[in-house]
Structures are given as structure tokens and as C-alpha cells.
Amino acid sequence: MLLLTAGFAQWQSNPAINTAIGVAGGDQVVTKVATHPSGVTYYAWFSLEGGNYNVRLQKTDVYGNIQFGTTGLLVSNHTSDTWITDFDMKVDNDTCAVIAFQDIRTGNNDAFAYRVSPGGQMLWGNDGIRLSTSSNADYTPLVAITSEGNAVVVWEESGTVEKVRMQKISPGGSKLWGTSGITLQGSGTINYTFPRVMAAPGDEVFVFWFKKDAGLYAPKHLYAQKITASGTSAWAADAAIFASSGIPMIPSIAFTPDTEGGFYVAWYDDRNNDWNYSTFIQHVNSSGQPQFAANGIEAIVNNSNNHMYPSITLSPDGQNLYVFLVEMDADQELRGLYGQRMSSAGQRLWTNSGKSFIGLSTLDVGMITAQMADTNVVVVYAKDGGFGGDVAKAMKVDKNGSYLWPTTDGHVMVSSSGGAKDDLVVGQYNFGQFIAAWSDQRSDGGDIYAQNITTTGELGAQEYTLVLAPDTIVFEQNTTELYRYFAVNNPTLFPVTVDSMEMMNFVMPGCGWSVDTTLAFPVTIQPGDSLWLKVLLLLVTDDFPDGLASDIIDIYTSAGQYGEVIMIDSSFQWNSANHSSPENHVMIYPNPASNQVTIRYSGNPAVETILINDLSGRPVKQIPVPKNSGILQMTTDISSLVTGEYFVVIRMLNERPETKKLAVVR
């Protein structure tokens, strides 16, 4: 076995250094991060270049190796406004990044979505997909990925009244809810504002929004609805989460799914009109019914202080909801980090006052993210470091609120680089680590940096090693077997994804092999499991001067790049009597094709399989083949394939596959 990327891990163990994700001359701001279960992590941000806010993307593997260069991959340099709003990025089931943002390329603020492959290809075209053809302005598009791999984008449309617009896009780039999506809106002068979206079970989503009447200071009420796969409302009535007053002008909410198809949601308000904000929690079940008291349950009861900017996370058994937030004094001059554990019935389990993890002081605390790490909670946050600039820190606590990392105060330094830190975000827990990313002004107006934090509170790359068994395949002299098997074993404690591999090669003229698989990569190997692969010997017709021909199957995984060695004995001669290569004829028409293509084959022997592979060799479509005697004509639908070039591979028993190039255009 060859491990081709070992020894070049980029996660730093020194919090004063961290890993540079995107470094450039202009400001790099508004960081987003998304981690796939395979350990691959994407980062997106706005990059100020020549007075324009471009959108850039970066990708790291589980070791912290960056893929798209020091400045990241340019996603869009279309004209932006002189100001920016929030945007979003998620990673989908195929380890692709889905990014949604707004710009003014059409002369109007419009929302666009892009899908970027692990290799950096723009799968929805270089200009992405315009989400709506409305002439109204679109703001702040946000994304959720459904269990079926579709992307649902929600945004606010500004017109005579504010509306919530939604669009659903297939992985192939088809708009599934019409040319301009679906609309949620109130009657008369009612505005629907600040929408949010979260995946629901199946191919559905939850959408949240604030309802308010005309007028800057009209009360905002928080509602939610479940949207079905077809774009209709699943609940007869919208779920009323908060219907009082006191929501701030720019509201903040946090949400997390429960274990039974519903969700928890947190927000803060000043319903008592006493200039003190407090955080409240509501639980809504799968039928859209609130489970706690109307307008929610207060997380921490302390009428003299503010409790704002909550982050929530639910234990795997669904019995404990953890709330972490910023506590401030009445004048909002002193700040600290506090927490609460609530039962599924809404009881406060860390007393009414909650727990103090950082006491009130003049040093600011904020940008809190709480996530479960198995049955414990990891909290990442930013803190004013005094004259040395901002720092990022983390802590891990159990259900009693006790610290679990063996440091003096239970907190671990994530970044001590100095300079202001903004937009601190954290990816999902995978491979025993969290990935935090932020905009850092350590050297200029802002660059993007990231750092991993393991569940033991350590920084720096861990070891994740796959095992290939056997690590070398040999086709010996006089063998009668035209294939060999090998396994990619995952002995680690974490899922590992095989993203792609070399599918076919010719060692030299007259000698070739292929990996015989119809798998659609990426493929996830669970802990303790194996992926078995079959290598076919295609042909050997020439003697080699050194007796053996050798090659390597390159295997690209989330745990690094590996190589399976292939060795072919030159004495193994292809038996022309039993394994002849007749003049097979393959026709593909039309070519280029758009929605359908016809494949005609005339030859001998019969066809076993027909695959359409992308240029990396990854099968993207398998065409069912009926029984045949070597004469075959089939028409197949290719409307799901994105524009580009492909290989049509026709395989016959014990014969070298026939391969033809196919161009797909739209």
C-alpha cells in the first residue's frame, strides 16, 4: 500500500499560527464553513477585490490540507453592491459545496446559487442559477440540503411588502418549484421577513420567518411551517412560536432538529418592555404543534441581566437541550458566557440562574457555537483578549456542566494570533474534531483562518489510516483468471469517504487494466467496514523487457491519497482463441446530445453493462441492458447530466470495453 499524502498535514498545533484558508490583499469577510461526514470541509467568504465583493471557496481534507491555493477558488466575480448582506454555504450528499448569495449583475439585487464539485468544477455553470425572475430585490439567501440531496434556498423578496421566497434545485441543476420558486406572504400590509431554513425528515424542510405589520417598530412575531417535497405547506396552520412583542429590530434565532421529526428553536426578546432581553425556547413537534407554553420557556431567569445570542444543541437521546448564550448587565457593559440544560419537558436543570462559564467582565464574549460531541458538549467562542486583540477559545462540558479538558480553567486556546476576529463559525463534528473558521485581522483588514479542535481538547492533525488488502495485485504467468479483488479497509473510528479513483489505465502499449465497478463515487466506508473492488485484466499482447509491467491505482479519500499496486507478468499472453477482440461497432447519436441519446452496438459477444462516466472515470449513470446476442440499440434519458463531456463505456464478457466520448449540451 502506498499512502501518498502522509506527512503533509496542515492543521497547526500552535494557536498563535492556525491554518491559512484564504489570504489576499483585500478584506476577506463573512466566513461560512460546512463539514461533510467524510471529514472534507468547505469554507466560503466574500473577498474584496478591486472594489467588488467576489465570492471565494476553499476546501480542506481531514488533515487540514488546502486544495484551492492560498487565495481560494473564485466562484463569482459578478458585480456586487457596495454593501453586503449574509449569504450561505452547505455541503451536499455528494461532497459538493452549494453556495447561495445575492449580487447586482442584472442591475437588480438577485439571488443566485452555485454547486461546486470536490475538484472545483462549477456544476451549475460558471454563472450559477438565478433563483427567481422577479423584478423585486432579493436579499440574504440561505440554504438547506434535504436527505435526497436537493438544495432548498430561502430568501427575502423586497417589494410593496416583504415576502419569503423559496426554490428547490436538484443536484443536476433543475428548478423543481417553477422558474421563480414558491412564495410565503401575509395579507394586506403584513410583511414576512428574516427567513431561515432547516432540513426536515425526507425531502422536506422547515422554514422560519418573522411576521410584522407596516411600520419600522411594529412587533415581530415568529412563525414556522414545514414545506413538503412538492413545495406545499405540510401543516394546516403555521406554527406560532412567538406572538408577543419585544423582538429586536434585527432578530436572532437558533434552531436544531429533535429526534422525532420536529425541532427546538431559541430567540431573545424584551416582552416585558423593561430594557432587558431574555432568551426563550420552544419545542415544535412533527405536526407543527408547540409543546411548551405559549411564547416559549425562559432559559435563564434573571430579570436584572440580559441573555442574548443563544446557541442550542440537543443530546443524541433527545432528552437534554443545551443552551449557551451571552449574559450582560443591564447597561450591556459587562459580558460573560452562561449556559443552561433543559429537559425535553422544558424544565431548567442547571437551576433557574443557569451556570456561569465566564463571569461578567468588561472583556467582550460572543460568536458562540455549541455542538454535541457524543454525549458531551463542545462550545467554541470568541473573547476580547485585552491589549493583545481577540482570541478564540473552546471548552467541553458534561451534562452537569463540569469541565472535561484538563486545563487550568477548563478552556482551550484555539487562536491567540492577535487582531480582531469576526464571523467565527464551526463545522459539524466529524472524525473526532470540530473545524472553526473566522475572518482574522492579524496582518491586514481580514484574512480567513481555520483551526481543528479534537474532542480531547488538542490542536493539530490526527492520524486516520486506511488499509489496502492486499496492497499489491499480481497477474501471474499462465493464470486463467482475468480479475483480482482488493479491499479498502477502514479500521478507524470515523467514516471515511472514497471520493474518486483511477478507473482504467494502460501500463504500456499492449497492456491494460480497469476497475470493474458501477459504484457512484463518493462512497462512504463506515468504521470497521470495507469496500471491495474488482480489477479486470483487459489485455496483454506484448512481451516486456523487464518481465513485469507495474502501475498504481490512485485512490483519493477523505483520509488522504492511497495507491494500489498492479503488476502484470509479461509471460501472461492473451489467448486469441478464447479472448478475441472482434471489430465491434459503436454508434452514439445525436452527439452532442441534450435530453436523450441513442446507443447502437453491433458485434460479438453480448453486451453486459453500459455506463456513462465523467472525465474522472466516476460512473454517473448506468443503463439497464436487456439480454442480447451482440446487436443492441437503446435510447436513454440524460436530462439529469450537467453540461460537459462524458465517456460511454460498453462492457462485454472477457473483452476490452468499447469507449466513446459523449458531449452533453443544454
Describe the structure.
The chain has 666 residues and is mainly β. Among the domains are: 467-569, Immunoglobulins (Immunoglobulin-like, Sandwich), CATH 2.60.40; 585-664, Immunoglobulin-like (Sandwich), CATH 2.60.40. 0% of the residues lie in helices and 50% in strands. Strands 1, 35, 37, 40, 42 and 43 form a six-stranded mixed beta sheet that branches. The chain has a five-stranded antiparallel beta sheet with strand order 34-36-41-39-38, with no helix packed on it. β23 (306-314) and β24 (320-328) form a beta hairpin. It starts with a strand and ends with a strand. Mean pLDDT is 88; it is low at 4-9, 541-546 and 572-584.
Set down the secondary structure blueprint.
Layout: E1 2-3, E2 19-22, E3 28-35, E4 41-49, E5 52-60, E6 73-76, E7 88-91, E8 97-103, E9 110-116, E10 129-130, E11 137-145, E12 151-158, E13 162-169, E14 182-184, E15 191-199, E16 205-212, E17 221-227, E18 239-242, E19 253-257, E20 263-269, E21 278-284, E22 297-298, E23 306-314, E24 320-328, E25 335-343, E26 355-361, E27 365-373, E28 376-384, E29 390-397, E30 411-415, E31 421-426, E32 433-440, E33 447-454, E34 467-469, E35 472-475, E36 483-489, E37 496-501, E38 504-508, E39 511-516, E40 523-525, E41 530-540, E42 548-557, E43 560-569, E44 585-589, E45 596-602, E46 607-613, E47 619-623, E48 631-637, E49 644-652, E50 658-664
Parallel strand pairs: 35-43
Antiparallel strand pairs: 1-43, 2-33, 3-4, 4-5, 5-6, 7-8, 8-9, 9-10, 11-12, 12-13, 13-14, 15-16, 16-17, 17-18, 19-20, 20-21, 21-22, 23-24, 24-25, 25-26, 27-28, 28-29, 29-30, 31-32, 32-33, 34-36, 36-41, 37-40, 37-42, 38-39, 39-41, 42-43, 44-45, 45-48, 46-47, 46-49, 49-50
